[in-house]
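Hey, resending since the last one bounced:
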Amino acid sequence: MKKLSFAITIFGFLLATSALAQMPNTLSKSEKVYGLSLFWQEVNYNFVYLSKVDREAWNTRYRALIDEVQETEDDYQYYRLLQAFCAMLSDGHTNVYFPQQIQEKLFNTHFGEYRLFLTNIDGKAIITRVNPSKKSEIPIGTEIVAVNGMSATTYRSLYVKPYISSSTAHILEDWSVMSMFESPEGTVFDVDIVTPKGEKKRLKLTHQRTQEQDVYPTWDDWQLLQLTWPEKGVAHLKLNSFSDPAIDSMFYAIMPELRKAKKLIIDLRLNGGGSSEIGGEILKNLTNDSVLFGSTMRSRQHIPSYKAWGNWVEAADTVGNEWARKSYLAYRDEMYYDFEYSPDTIYGEVERLVLPTVLLIGHNTASAAEDFLIWADGQKHMTKIGEPTFGSTGQPMLIDLPGGGTARICTKQDRYPDGREFVGVGILPDILVETTIDDYQKNRDVGLEKALEFLKKK
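The structure tokens again:
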């Protein structure tokens, strides 16, 4: 009964919000049911972590959604229900994405005269950037304590978290704060804030585009690769993505400059992944090893006959009987194909640069950047400093949904070579460094500071 009332509460909120937005309304009832069923079907066949899902709850929700999606008033409401359904899977590489014509009508940080960026700090929604004209009125470090008459924590639990698909608890917290106000243009929020000095204020915020373009503190210019020298002899190399193979040629281009370094900081804190091979091409130059040990991989295996036979197989029947074991597992969707494992051998001449090295990592270090860290695991000259990583990687399968939206479903499980799990946990730093409210107020990079302090001892 509690689950039912919770769903109604969320759905009622969607109806009220979407009415303000004049969202596209292009989908027929049959198209909505088809899109829902397509996603449900492909998850059942291909989602690698299906064994971790409460199947009864998953299928019960699917049956309920068959009616609910048909009653949505526009495409936005429909996709929000799909996103909430997807979030039940709790996987960072399994997502439902809005069609472009919906996404472009959504706002998150724009409130007309205000521009607000939020960061999760100790479970609190903290304003860490504003438009410069409001930095005195809303100082950096101001906390959002209530939204629409309820605590900010309750608001996020009811209206934000249920739509976020995340493998790790820390990313769920981060994203629920960061995207706390994502909603259609024109949506109004009554917000209570408390400044760092304890001053309480109430704001009525309406999603409208903010004309003031600048933000405070300013953003660093994003570059695919960036080399700086924070101290003499210490190179700070930012590798901000492995999605563009150009980063490999850029790396080789700066190698003559890098050779001047005595110590090295590899910064992966903004690296959301891309291709593992791109990162591996760089890493092979930063180790003396001729072999790198990457993650092991497995995927679901579906053989219909085994699944049919498994209906009559009990656990006791599997002892010493391979046919019965496969049938038993297939019937329960727990039959896997383990990809042949072999370490990555480094061939040919390689420009080696092996120095005392810090790997700066954080919550946004994800996917192929985490694969980079798996390869680097056990390198004695490398030390990880920062926060746990994103905790999700894999091979997503893409599917098209009605109305121009898309979904992706994770089909591959990755683990350390020795079997350790990092999906759902994150790769943990050797030295934990967390940014505080005070650090944001002073615009300090405490991770970099800790890395420099550590390297002075090397």
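The CA atoms of residues 117 and 129 lie 5 Å apart.

Sorry for the duplicate.
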